[in-house]
């Protein structure tokens, strides 16, 4: 069977809609581009449903994952996505590389370029690092998380998971609960969800709310803010709990983890305020018993494992699209 017959999709050609050589965030994605990613994702899910879950669509292409921070789901799903499409995949962990000897980011990227990388997937603790990286390489750069700034592929798989269950997102109430300030996942989801027409409500302690949500200096789309979790969850169609990092308590942003659990944990009683068919999401890793009760994380409304599964298909779609996109 020829390569062109391996992936059946009704999606338009990338050049008709797609205008990105890199994926740095989704704040500049149009609704049409997001829908294009989802159309391609559905084709990739069909590939993953086959007995042999591989096609040679990216044969001859090289993907390198470059992670300066730990990762399980994101890193593995990108590597699986590349291999499922026939690409060569290599992994570089910064602590085990010459970075530990003082090599700069620019020098590392130059090395990857010289080794023939076509796509580099990078996670970095500094916000904006992937944007700087694009100035020093011809390969496509995919941001796998930069500081507190963005995690575009996680947001796309989250939104895709909601769309799979709910269809059109226009008018849906999506509540994000937790440490909004320090969450790159929350920021990218705010952009993506609002672009798709969802109504986003943020719920967290005032000390964990980011700046730039209102006024003339607003840096994020219009959202609702509700600090009381019961009121926030009223009539919700989907709820995303965010991981609470223990260092927030040590930095004085929370009185105690115990108090956070009392006021903001997503438990069964609080979830009952949402719609009966409301979805429960979490980008992982999950602190069960802290930001989300175990009964909710593993309950019938949870789609957390679906998010992980969909992550491979979404990232396959993005790699497939990037490989066929023109350089900017």
Verbal overview:
This protein is of the alpha/beta class and 328 residues long. The protein folds into 2 domains: 3-151 and 309-323, Aspartate/ornithine carbamoyltransferase (Rossmann fold, 3-Layer(aba) Sandwich); 153-307, 3-Layer(aba) Sandwich (Rossmann fold), CATH 3.40.50. 37% of the residues lie in helices and 13% in strands. The protein contains 13 helices and 9 strands. The protein has helices at residues 14-17, 31-48, 73-84, 105-114, 129-133, 152-166, 184-195, 229-233, 247-250, 257-264, 268-271, 294-297, 304-323; strands at 62-67, 88-93, 119-124, 140-146, 173-177, 199-203, 224-225, 238-241, 279-281. The strands form 2 sheets. The chain has a 5-stranded parallel sheet. Strands 2-1-3-4 form a 4-stranded parallel sheet. The protein starts with 13 loop residues before the first helix and ends in a 5-residue tail after the last helix.
């Amino acid at each position: 069977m020829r390569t062109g017959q391996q992936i059946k999709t009704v999606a338009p050609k990338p050049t008709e809609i797609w205008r990105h050589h890199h994926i740095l965030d989704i704040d500049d994605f149009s609704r049409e581009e997001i829908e294009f990613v989802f159309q391609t994702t559905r084709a990739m899910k069909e590939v993953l449903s086959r007995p042999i879950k591989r096609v040679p669509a990216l044969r001859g292409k090289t993907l390198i994952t470059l992670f300066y921070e730990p990762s399980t789901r994101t890193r593995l799903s990108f590597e699986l996505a590349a291999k499922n499409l026939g690409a060569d995949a290599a992994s570089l962990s910064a602590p085990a590389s010459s970075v530990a000897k003082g090599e700069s980011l620019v020098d590392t990227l130059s090395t990857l370029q010289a080794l023939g990388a076509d796509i580099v997937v990078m996670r970095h603790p500094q916000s904006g690092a992937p944007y700087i990286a694009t100035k020093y390489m011809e390969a496509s750069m995919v941001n796998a998380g930069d500081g507190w700034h963005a995690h575009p592929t996680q947001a796309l798989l989250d939104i895709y998971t909601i769309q799979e269950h709910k269809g059109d997102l226009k008018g849906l109430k999506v509540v994000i609960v937790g440490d909004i300030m320090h969450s790159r996942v929350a920021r990218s989801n705010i952009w993506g969800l609002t672009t798709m027409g969802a109504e986003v409500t943020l719920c967290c302690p005032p000390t964990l709310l980011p700046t730039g949500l209102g006024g003339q200096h607003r840096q994020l789309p219009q959202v609702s803010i509700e600090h009381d979790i019961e009121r926030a969850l009223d009539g919700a169609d989907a709820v995303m709990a965010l991981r609470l990092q223990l260092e927030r308590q040590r930095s004085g942003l929370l009185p105690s983890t115990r108090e956070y659990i009392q006021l903001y944990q997503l438990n069964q009683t609080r979830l009952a305020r949402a719609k009966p068919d409301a979805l429960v999401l979490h980008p992982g890793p999950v602190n069960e018993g802290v930001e989300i009760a175990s009964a909710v994380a593993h309950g019938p409304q949870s789609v957390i494992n679906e998010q992980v599964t969909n992550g491979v298909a979404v990232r396959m779609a993005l790699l497939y699209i990037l490989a066929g996109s023109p350089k900017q």
